[in-house]
Amino acid sequence: MSKYTQYTSEFKIEAVKLAQSSDKPISTIANELGVKSNTLYNWISLAMKNNILKTSKSSKPNYRYQELEKENLHLRRELKRAKQEREILKKAAAYFASQEL
């Protein structure tokens, strides 16, 4: 009796397509399919290496990454401005506090 389970290539391809098209974590998909998550990660890696995945599916994460980068840049600028405003308010409060004495 074999210690390892053999999966058909069709099953592997469908599992990779499901993992790429779903918003669920890969580990969750692997559990639902009854496969170890490392195995599914390896299948995805091989599919990307062999260009089995379509570009339209792989561009979705890239688009999401770009959106997150834009949001990150916006939030960094907003944080920098808030810190500057806080420093100005600290100095103004210290100035007015010294004027009262």
Top keywords for this entry?
2 domains; 101 residues; mainly alpha; 4 helices
Entry summary:
The protein has 4 helices and no strands.
Indicate the topology.
Elements: H1 9-21, H2 26-33, H3 37-49, H4 55-100
Descriptive account of the structure:
There is one protein chain. With 101 residues, the protein is mainly α. Helix content is 79%, strand content 0%. The chain is built from four helices and no strands. About 5% of the residues have low confidence.
Query: What is the arithmetic mean of pLDDT?
Result: 85
In helices, the fraction of residues equals over 70%
Please summarize the sheet with the most strands: none
Structure classification? mainly alpha
Number of helices: 4
Overall tally of structural domains: 2
Shape: rod-shaped
In whole angstroms, how far apart are the ends?
89 Å
- What proportion strand? under 5%
Number of strands: 0
Order of helices and strands: HHHH
- Mind telling me the C-alpha Rg? 26 Å
